[in-house]
Design a protein that fits this description.
The protein is α/β, with parallel strands linked by helices and about 400 residues long. Helices cover about 40% and strands about 20% of the residues. Bound molecules: nicotinamide-adenine-dinucleotide and sulfoquinovose-uridine-C1,5'-diphosphate (USQ). Nicotinamide-adenine-dinucleotide binds next to helix 2, helix 6, strand 5 and strand 9.
């Protein structure tokens, strides 16, 4: 297939591009490199040394013999170029990773909120309307998030997208209705992913677009089979207070003897998936495309759930680190349970990598190896969800 990977220079997009290219697909990365600019804005860099996207593609060709093409294009701001690009390349499938993905970055200031909404909602909508206009019947696979649902426990499993409810009509008769499982996003970033869901529902229903939305948990780990093939193919690894995700942050904190930064009691339960399983899930989703006229297919893309304090204890046990319980910079439930249905991918053949088996390897081969690249001042998470919370944020545990 000819596959467009939008956001293919990012943490999930790069290993996915390599994985699909390795399977023999003709891969075209489209990216505006905004994530690299945001590193510059924040004064941070990936823990792992990343080459330019052009250099990465050159090395991949050398290692595999396969070509990955790179196209510099802003999906949110360059609608006409996007349409022309689609008309010229006519992909069979499109994987859409191209959004601002950090919740803390999206809550930093009013400017960051505006940027995140403008970028994410416009990118998704521009893509959908361009597909309609060009009459390209590509299967669109979008990376959404588990966090659209919020974390208020009701003791029931989160289904894969839809909920059957019963309502009473004016005659007092009970009628069945299928609705999108209700969202309750916990950040401006997560809110944009909830808005994406409505855009997908509309374009699938109105124009017959074929869409799969992957509601992914927190991705951990760094390398995949393909990024490990050459040191210059290494994946990015974010550790700073805005873009670093919780488990990857604990791993680098352990490597530099920084107390593990647990927000609040650490009673937050979240869904996780290894980056190797992310790329496999995208492959599986591509093999199971919806037909024209189908509702949006929604998969929960996660393999296990953990409480933040349990993760900190696991890392502390492996490394001897201290744990610091800090005032939470976010507005979120202090404690929650989380049960998630993920039958679709298991049925399609996913055999998940478990956290216990991969953690030590990640500490030794990534966190400790590149510890000299860490700037300690960028480790604290200081982006506060409200002005009140900002007054209580701790900058140095
Ligand atoms: P990332 O920031 O590393 O990659 C996103 C890429 O998209 C970057 O290369 C960026 O330059 C590009 N991009 C952003 N806006 C663009 C635009 N307007 N036009 C063109 N390119 C643009 O993020 P990631 O961690 O790889 O996440 C990819 C997707 O997966 C995101 O949509 C995110 O919401 C979702 N996701 C990520 C995680 C995670 O833990 N990393 C978990 C669940 C879901
Ligand atoms: N947390 C800590 N200490 C830290 C960092 C985070 O206790 O040093 C806590 C947070 O308060 C939160 C939890 O860990 O309760 C998860 O935070 P995170 O930054 O790892 O994850 P999140 O903000 O939810 O966002 C990440 C990705 C996002 C993706 C989402 C999947 O950045 O792109 O959509 O995970 S999910 O969480 O399932 O919505």
């Amino acid at each position: 297939m000819r596959i467009a990977v939008l956001g293919g220079d990012g943490f999930c997009g790069w290993p996915t591009s390599l994985h699909l290219s390795n399977l023999g697909h003709d891969v075209h990365i489209v990216d505006n490199l905004s994530r690299r600019w945001i590193d510059t804005e924040l004064g941070v860099q990936s823990l792992t040394p990343m080459d330019s996207i052009q250099e990465r593609c050159r090395i991949w060709k050398q290692v595999s013999g396969n070509e990955i093409h790179f196209h510099l294009l802003d999906l949110a701001k360059e609608y006409q170029r996007l349409r022309l690009w689609l008309e010229e390349y006519r992909p069979d499938a499109i994987i859409h990773f191209a959004e601002q993905r950090a919740a803390p970055y999206s809550m930093k200031s009013d400017r960051h909120k505006v940027y995140t909404v403008d970028n994410n909602v416009s990118a998704t909508h521009n893509l959908l309307t361009a597909l309609v206009e060009t009459e390209i019947d590509a299967h669109l696979v979008h990376l959404g998030t588990m966090g659209v649902y919020g974390y208020s426990s009701v003791g029931a499993a989160i289904p894969e997208g839809y909920l059957d409810v019963e309502i009473e009509n004016l005659e007092g008769e009970k009628k069945g209705l299928e609705i999108l499982y209700p969202t309750r996003p916990g950040s401006v970033y997560h809110m944009t992913k909830s808005l994406d869901q409505i855009l997908f529902q509309f374009y699938a229903q109105n124009d017959g677009l074929r869409i799969t939305d992957l509601h992914q948990g927190i991705v951990w780990g760094t390398n995949t089979d393909q990024t490990s093939r050459h040191e210059q193919l290494i994946n990015r690894f974010d550790y700073d207070g805005d873009y670093g995700t919780v488990l990857n942050r604990f791993l680098i904190q352990a490597a530099i003897k920084y107390p593990l930064t647990v927000h609040g009691t650490g009673g937050q339960t979240r869904a996780f998936i290894h980056i190797q399983d992310t790329v496999r899930c995208v492959e599986l989703a591509l093999s199971d495309a919806p037909e024209r006229g189908d509702r949006v297919k929604i998969f929960n893309q996660m393999t296990e759930t953990h409480r933040v304090r349990d993760l900190a204890e696991m890392v502390a046990k492996l490394t001897g680190s201290e744990i610091a319980f800090l005032p939470n910079p976010r507005k979120e439930a202090a404690e929650n349970d989380l049960i998630v249905k993920n039958d679709s991918f298991l049925t399609l053949g996913l055999d998940p990598i478990r956290l216990e088996s991969g953690l030590l390897d990640e500490i030794v081969h990534i966190a400790e190896k590149y510890a000299h690249r860490i700037d300690r001042k960028h480790v604290p998470a200081v982006s506060a969800w409200t002005k009140d919370i900002a007054r209580r944020v701790v900058r140095d545990p």
